[in-house]
Amino acid sequence: MTEKLGCNEVRGEQYRFTILTDHLIRMEYSATGEFVDNATQAVVNRDFPATKFEVQENQDGLEIITAGLHLYYTDGEFSPDNLFIDVKSNLTDYGNRWVYGDHVETLKGTTQTLDGVDGSTELQEGIISRAGFAVLDDSDSFTILENGELESKKFQSSDLYFFAYQHDYQQALSDFYHLSGQVPILPRFALGNWWSRFWQYSETSYVELLDQFKAVQIPLAVGVLDMDWHIRDIPKRFGSGWTGYSWNKDLFPKPEQFLQQLHQRGLKVTLNVHPAAGIRACEDAYPAISSRLKLNVSLEEPAVFDFNNTDFRKGYFADVHHPLEEQGVDFWWLDWQQGNQSKSQGIPPLWALNHYHFLDSSKRGTGLILSRYAGIGSQRYPIGFSGDSIVSWASLAFQPYFTATASNVGYSWWSHDIGGHMEGVYDEELSLRWLQLGVFSPINRLHSGASSFSGKEPWNYSLPIANGMKTMLQLRHALIPYLYTMSVRNHEKGVPLVQPLYYQHPEADEAYIQKNEYYFGSQLLVAPITTKSNASLKMGSTLVWLPAGQWFDFFTGTPYQGDTTLKVFRAITEIPVFARAGAIVPLDANPLQTKADELPTKLHWKIFAGASNSFTLVETLGEKTVRTQVQLDWKQKTLTVTNDGATEILSVEREHQFEIIGTSLSETLSMKQTGTLSLTDYMLPNTVNIAPQYFDRLRQAEIPYALKETCWAHFQQTNDYAKRINALRQIVTGEQFDWLAELLYVESVNEKEEI
Q1: Helix (H) / strand (E) containing 585
Q2: DSSP strand pairing (577-580 vs 550-553)
Q3: What does the alpha-carbon distance between residue 145 and residue 152 come to, in Å, rounded to a whole number?
Q4: From edge to edge, which strands make up the β-sheet containing 83-87?
Q5: How far apart are CA 245 and CA 243, in angstroms?
Q6: pLDDT of residue 3
C-alpha cells in the first residue's frame, strides 16, 4: 500500500520516494522500514519548495511523473528488474532511460588528492552528464546530528538521489548546493597571494623574507608555515616527528612576537599540522590534555588521535589548538595522514577532522581550513589542498581541467601547490606559466619543496621571468574586489568562480573539447598556456574556443570575433584572458597599499566597450555589507554608479577610475562615490591595425631574416584577408602559419557595428 505523505513524499512499508524538484528525486529502500531524516555527509537540507507531480498505482506497480522524469517501480528491494526512470528529454534518439544499477558516465567531479600524480588521474563521478542525468548514492553516508556531532548510520538502506536536469547544468548545481550545503563566503584575505614552502625557516629568516617581498613590491596576504614550525627532533620512543604541536624555540624563540610581526605586515598565518600521531608526552600541551583524559603520565600514555571521541576532541581544541590561536595563529593547514580507518565505522578520519575543525574555526575566527577533499559535501569546508604536486608540465597541464571539473560536485575552492612541490627540474618558463594559472585560480598559494634550489621567490629567476611574476602577483591582489564578489555569488547563487565552458554553452561540442579553458567569474574567460613555448617564435600557444560575440584580450584590448576556435600565441610573460564586449571588472587601483582584508580607497574599473551590462561589487567589513552597482548602457553611452547598504564602511575618499577598452579613446574617467558619466565620445573603431604586432612578432622570432622580410612584404602588399592568408600559406607552415594567422584573423573580422 502506497501513501502520499506531506507535499512531496510517496511511501510504502519498505520504500520512500521524495520528489524534491521536477528534476530531482530521492529514492530509498529499507528492509526494516527505517529511513534517514537527519542530515548526512552528503545531504544537509531536503527542504525544497513544493513541486507538482502525479502518482499512479496499478497492478504493474507504482509510477511517479514530474515535468522532468517518469519513475517506474514494482515492489521489493531496488534492482534492475523493478526500478527505472525515463528522463523527459530529446538529447539522444535513445538512452534516456536509467535502470537501477546502471553506471552513468558523467562529466566527472574531483578526487581526494593529487599526491604522487604526474599528469592526469581518474576523477570521481559528478552530478551532471551529457546524457542529461546522474545519480548520487548516499547509502553509506554517516549522519550529522542537530548539535553537529557525527554518527554512524545505524541501519542498512539504499538512499539515492537522481538528478535529471538535462543540460541545465547550472540549475543542477544550484539545487545540489541547496541539498548538500552552500559554500561559505571566504574571508577576503584568502583571495590574495599565499607564500608557502616546506622549509626550515626561523623567525628572523621568515621576517626578512617578507621584507624582501615588500621591497620588490610583491603583496602577500597569507603566510604559511610548513611543519618545521614545531619540534621535529623528538626522542625515538615517541616515534616520528611528523606530528607536532610545540614551537621549535630554537627557530622561533618568541612565537607571539613573531606572529604579531606578521599581522603588522598585513598577513594572516596558517600552520601545518599532521594530527595522525595524536598528542604525545613530548608536547607542551601534554600536561593539560593528559589531565583532561586521565592518561597514565608515568607511562607517557599518548592521547591517541580519535576525532570521534568527544573527550579527545575537546582536549585537542581547548588544550592544543586554542592556545596557539591565542598566540596569533589564524587558521590551520590540516595535512591529512590518518588513513581511512576509524573506530566509528563509516566516519573516515579526514571527514571528522574537516568537519569539526571547520565548526571550531567558524565559532572562534576565520571560518577557514586548508585540507584535502573528503567526498561529496566537502564544499562546506573550504579550502581544499590538492596535495603534493610533482613539478612537471604534465602536472600543470592537468590542473585547469581538474579545477574547473571540480565544480561538477560543487567543490569550488581548490588550492594547488602553485609551481609544484616535489621532483622535477629547474624550468623558469614552467614556473611562470604555473604562476599565471595560480593568479587565475581559486587560491594562489605559491609553494615549493625542501630543495635549496626550488624556491619560488621571484628574485630566484632571470629578470624577465622575475618581472613577469611580479606583475602577475600584483594583479592577483588587484583582483581581490572581483574575487570577493565572486565568492559571495558562489555562496548566494551557487555559481562557482571557475566554471567549465559547457555550463554556459551546453549544446556546443567545443565547450567539451576545450577542457583546459574556463570561465573565471562572471566576466572573464581564461585559457592558460600549459606547454613549452616554441623556441624559435619566442611564444607559447594554446587552442582557444571563443563563443559567439565580440571578445577582447583582457590585457591589451585586442579585439577578437567569437564563434571560432583559434590558436593564440602569447609571450612568456602573458596569459590568454578574454573579456566579452560589455564586461566590467573591478580592480584595486593600489594593490600594494591595500592590505588583503581591507577595502580599497580607489577602484580601477576595466570596462570593455560594445555592449550594455551591469556589475554589482560586494564589499564586507565585519558584519556590514555594501553593494556598488556599475551600469553600462552602451546604447545611451552612459556609465552609472550607485550604492546600496552600509555605505559607511567605505572610505570617504572612495574614488572610481574607469578605463574604457576597445574604443578609439584611451582617456581614463574618474568619479567620486556615485553618479553618472557620459561616454558619448567613446566609439568602436571601424578597423583594427595589427601591423605593429605583426612586425613585432617577426622581429623577435629566431627565424631567418630573409623569411621575415618575405612575410612582412606580403603583409604590406594587400589589405585583403584571403590574399594575405593564401600568400602566408605559400611561405610558412605549421605553428609559424598559426602564429601570424591569429593576427590576420583579428584584423579581418573586426569591422564593427554599433551594438
Answers
A1: strand 584-588
A2: antiparallel
A3: 10
A4: 54-58, 61-65, 69-73, 83-87, 97-99
A5: 7
A6: 54
* β-bridge pairing 602-608 and 655-661: parallel
Rounded-to-integer distance, Cα 630 and Cα 633, Å: 10
- Please report which residue ranges of 195-268 form alpha helices under DSSP H: 203-215, 255-264
Dihedral Cα 581, 582, 586, 589, nearest 10 deg: 70
pLDDT tens-digit series, residues 573-586? 999 999 999 999 99
Q: What is the DSSP letter of 191?
A: G
Residue 755 is predicted with a pLDDT of: 34
Separation CA 714–CA 730 (nearest Å)? 10
SS3 15: strand
Q: What is the pLDDT of residue 243?
A: 94
Strands (E), 609-667: 613-621, 624-633, 638-645, 655-661
User: What type of residue is 681?
Assistant: D
Q: Residue 269 contacts by C-beta under 8 Å, 6 or more apart in sequence? A: 222, 223, 224, 225, 259, 262, 263, 328, 329, 330
Contact 650, 657 (CB under 8 A): no
Please give the Cα distance from 216 to 690 (Å, whole number).
34
Angle at 54 between CA 48 and CA 55, to 5 degrees: 105
**Three-class SS of 217-233:** CCCCCEEEECHHHECCC
Angle of CA points 394, 400, 403, to nearest 5°: 120
What residue ranges of the chain have pLDDT lower than 50?
Answer: 1, 752-755
Question: Minimal CA–CA distance to 435: which of 398, 396, 402?
Answer: 396
Q: Which residue has the cell 603588522?
A: 264
Q: Residue 592 and residue 220: Cα distance in Å, rounded? A: 9
Burial of 707 (0-12, 13-18, 19+ CB in 10 A): middle
Percentages of the chain per state (helix, strand, coil), in multiples of 5:
30, 25, 45
414: part of which helix (H) or strand (E)?
A: strand 414-415
Query: Coil, strand or helix: which one is 350?
Result: helix
Print burial letters for 266-281: b (CB count within 10 Å at least 16), e (below 16).
Answer: bbbbbbbbbbbbbbbb
Sign of CA dihedral 356, 359, 363, 366: positive
Give me the pLDDT at residue 751, please. Answer: 52
The closest alpha carbon to 26, from 143, 158, 144, 181, belongs to 158
C-alpha cell read off for 594: 591595500
- Going by C-alpha positions, the residue among 227, 328, 330, 220 that lies closest to residue 270 is 330
* Grid coordinates given for 60: 504493474
Buried b (16+ CB within 10 A) or exposed e, 372-387: bbbbbbbbbbbbbbbb
* Helix (H/G/I), strand (E/B), else coil: 55: strand
- Decide: 578 and 525 in contact? Cβ < 8 Å: yes
What pLDDT score was predicted for residue 7? 72
Report the C-alpha gap between 222 and 225 in whole angstroms: 10
Cα three-residue angle 521-392-119, rounded to 5 degrees: 70
The DSSP secondary-structure symbol of 467 reads H
> Which pLDDT does position 365 carry in this prediction?
86
Give the chain's count of helices (H) and strands (E). Answer: 16, 38
For 752, phi then psi, to 5°, come to -90, 150
Per the listing, cell 630573409 goes with 706
Task: Tell me the whole-structure pTM to 2 decimals.
Answer: 0.96
Question: CA angle 617-620-622, nearest 5°?
Answer: 175
Q: Which are the contacts of 328, defined by CB distance < 8 A and separation ≥ 6?
A: 255, 256, 259, 260, 262, 263, 269
Are the CB atoms for 532 and 540 separated by under 8 Å? yes
pLDDT score for 340: 60
